[in-house]
Design goal:
Elements (H helix, E strand, L loop, with lengths): L1 H20 L2 E9 L8 E3 L5 E3 L2 H10 L4 E5 L8 H6 L2 H10 L3 E3 L9 H10 L4 E2 L3 E3 L11 E6 L2 E10 L9 E2 L3 E3 L2 H14 L4 E8 L7 H9 L6 E4 L8 E3 L2 E5 L1 E2 L3 E9 L6 E10 L2 H4 L3 H18 L2 E5 L12 H14 L3 E5 L10 E4 H7 L5 E8 H9 L6 E4 L2 E5 L2 E7 L2 E2 L5 E7 H4 L5 H5 L2 E8 H10 L12 E3 L1
Parallel strand pairs: 1-4, 1-16, 4-5, 5-6, 9-12, 12-13, 13-15, 20-27, 24-29
Antiparallel strand pairs: 1-17, 2-3, 7-11, 8-9, 10-11, 14-15, 17-18, 19-21, 20-23, 22-27, 22-28, 24-25, 25-26
Length: 487
């Protein structure tokens, strides 16, 4: 009786062995730092081809035949007027329409207040993740998820996120205006355990890096060497050009700026579901190649119409144009500095010449003009400083880098000789109140910041304040020049 049993068992064993020898694959499409870039645009780096946008991404995603997921590493609105107008809602709507499985909040998204972030999460069809994010009350925001388990084919994929405020100083709690970032390693252990307890077979980390800093491969290796096993880390670090392996973990870049998508083909062990190998491709989202999904395009069109109506609104007018530079003066920057001083009711204002990107033409000024002129999203900061410290700070700033209001600076042979106010020279012991953009006082070595007695951020954008200035009277002319006098 044993011989017939073996006769039938042998083919079954051969079939099982054949099944186990087949490759099993899950494909993840990863994007990040879209920053409000919703639609395709002509791209010089791609020979002028129209590329990018969520309608193109959706067509690419739908063409994939393997089990798949779409994930986003965050930073949803900071680069475009449309993104700022909706406070990220336009991007979140597109992520939902394009079929993303999950999205992580990025560092730039934390400029949203808790109420704004909650409104965004409530409206989102996509789970929004933030594993190491806490409110100032030391409670996790209940409107965000710490982790989520997604289905890709027959596999359960566990996804969580972490934000790194400073790769140079890892695993330190970071206090922000409205939030606290807890130590990433601690939160990673908690998230991985929760995902495994939920039955996740693959663990994926969406790791957001502070856009103002850089994370080297050594940072990833050090971070991953001390924690639990993670199968795949997807990061928005732009200096990472291709995947590498750190111990048992693959580290791969996401496609950035709405222009590219990373296609990550994960080869799995059919028996265990463990990640065996990774095939990565960076795919330009070429409109001509993939086309555009009409349902996503409808969502984008709605946001474009809303934005167009908003940005065409008139805020004021100019009698004469205000170029960036004209005969040694800086009319656009001088006008802005005057607006800062007037709005803040300070003794003076100092503005970096890099703030205005373009000047203003004569005639009507719209909200769209304000966004085009001030793309840096700078806030106005109030500063208190003694007269002698202010003069020393101004002497340390090259004369070709600033405009001022309420002051006149005299240079001789490239060196600051004296500073005048409407009431005479600077009084050394007098405390002056200044208005400056936060981009100008950032950094430990900044002479204004290091010399200030106190400072406070108004949390009002420079473009808002300039718009307020335009709205105060019917029309403006050219501001008085001669503020920087060179001999």
């Amino acid at each position: 009786m044993k011989v017939p049993a073996l006769k039938y068992a042998l083919p079954a064993l051969l079939l099982l062995a054949g099944a186990c020898s087949k490759k099993e694959q899950v494909v993840i499409f990863a994007t990040g730092r879209g920053q409000g870039r919703l639609w395709a645009r002509e791209e010089a780096s791609l020979k002028g081809a129209r590329a990018g946008g969520y309608a193109v991404f959706k067509k690419l995603l739908d063409a994939e035949t393997a089990p798949k997921l779409a994930l986003d590493t965050g930073n949803w609105f900071s680069a475009t007027p449309e993104g700022w107008l909706t406070r990220g809602r336009s991007t979140i709507d597109c992520l939902g329409a394009a079929g993303y499985g999950a999205a992580a909040a990025g560092m730039e998204d934390l400029s949203l207040s808790p109420a704004e972030l909650q409104k965004l999460a409530t409206a989102s069809a996509v789970p929004l993740l933030a594993s190491n994010l806490y409110l100032k009350t030391n409670k996790k925001p209940d409107y965000l998820r710490s982790q989520v388990v997604l289905q890709a084919g027959r596999r359960k994929v566990g996804v969580f996120s972490a934000m790194i405020a400073s790769p140079a100083k890892p695993n330190r709690a970071k206090y922000l205006l409205n939030y606290k970032l807890e130590k990433e390693s601690y939160e990673t252990e908690r998230a991985v355990k929760a995902l495994k307890d939920s039955g996740a077979e693959l663990i994926v980390l969406l790791l957001g890096i502070n856009p103002r800093e850089k994370a080297s491969p050594e940072f990833f290796r050090e971070f991953l060497s001390k924690g639990p096993r993670i199968d795949l880390v997807i990061t928005d670090e732009p200096s990472l050009k291709k995947p590498f392996k750190a111990g048992r973990t693959w580290v791969a870049p996401a496609g950035l700026e709405g222009l590219y998508a990373s296609r990550l083909a994960l080869e799995l062990d059919p028996a265990t579901g463990r990640l065996k190998d990774l095939d990565w491709t960076s795919l330009p989202l070429l409109q001509e190649k993939y086309g555009q999904d009409q349902a996503v395009l409808k969502v984008i069109t709605g946001h474009r119409k809303y934005a167009a109506a908003h940005f065409s609104r008139r805020v004021g007018s100019l009698e004469v144009p205000l170029p960036l530079a004209d005969k040694g003066d800086t009319p656009a920057a001088d006008f802005t500095a005057d607006c800062m001083q007037r709005w803040a009711r300070t003794n003076a204002a100092i503005l970096g010449l890099k703030e205005p990107a373009v000047g203003f033409s004569s005639g009507p000024v719209t909200i769209g003009h304000l966004y085009a002129s001030f793309p840096l999203d700078s806030n106005v900061v109030f500063v208190k400083i003694r007269g002698d410290d202010l003069e020393r700070a101004l002497a340390a700033i090259p004369p070709g880098e600033i405009s001022v209001a309420g002051l006149q600076l005299f240079y001789k042979d490239g060196l600051l000789e004296r500073v005048a106010t409407p009431h005479g020279p600077l009084a050394p012991a007098h405390v002056y109140r200044l208005a400056v953009p936060d981009s100008f006082v950032g950094g430990k070595d900044n002479p204004i910041l290091s010399s200030a007695m106190e400072f406070a951020n108004s949390r009002r954008y420079l473009r808002e304040i300039t718009g307020w200035c335009f709205s105060r009277q019917r029309s403006y002319g050219r501001p008085q020049g001669g503020r920087i006098v060179r001999n």
